[in-house]
Amino acid sequence: MDTYRDKVEYEQSHFRNITEGLLDQEGFEIGGEEYKRPLANNLPAYYQPWIQRKGIYLHKSIPLNDILYSDKLIHYMEKQFAPLHSLYEFFVDVCD
Predict the structure, then answer these.
(1) 49-60 as b/e, with b when 16 or more CB fall inside 10 Å?
(2) Fewer CB near the terminus (10 Å): N or C of the chain?
(3) How far apart are the C-alpha atoms of 95 and 65, rounded to whole Å?
(4) Is 64 helix (H, G, I), strand (E, B) or coil?
C-alpha cells in the first residue's frame, strides 16, 4: 500500500483522471479497512478516501433482475465494470 500511495501522490492528475466519476457517475463504492488514525500526507481531500486504507477495493451493487439468468449477463457485467479498466492498469503498474 505504501507504493500505491506514493504512486497516487506522484501521479495525482493521472489518478484523478482515471478515478473521477467512478463513485458518483458509475455508482462504485470504495471498500477496505480504514486506518484508525489518518496517515499524514499532503494530498487534497479528493484523494483521502483512496489512500487512508490498509487495503482497497471497489464494489458496486446492481439490482437483481431477469438479466442474471439470461445470456445477456456477460455483456451487462462487461459494460458495468469497463470503467474500472484504467484503474486496474494503475494497480498493475503499482505491482510492477
Answers:
(1) ebbbbeebebee
(2) C
(3) 37
(4) coil
Cα gap 91→96, rounded to integer Å:
9
Rg (CA), the chain: 15
Under DSSP, is residue 57 helix (H, G, I), strand (E, B) or coil?
A: strand
Q: Which residues contact 39 (CB under 8 A, 6 or more apart)?
A: 5, 51, 52
Q: Pick the closest to residue 86 from 20, 23, 31 (CA basis).
A: 20
CA angle 73, 75, 80 (to 5 degrees): 90
Look at residue 25 in the predicted model and tell me its pLDDT. Answer: 93
Which single residue is written with the C-alpha cell 477495493? 57
Which residues of the chain are under the pLDDT cut of 50? none
The three-point CA angle 54-57-62 to 5° equals 145
10 in Cβ contact with 93 (< 8 Å):
no
pTM, rounded to two decimals: 0.87
For residue 41, the SS3 value is coil
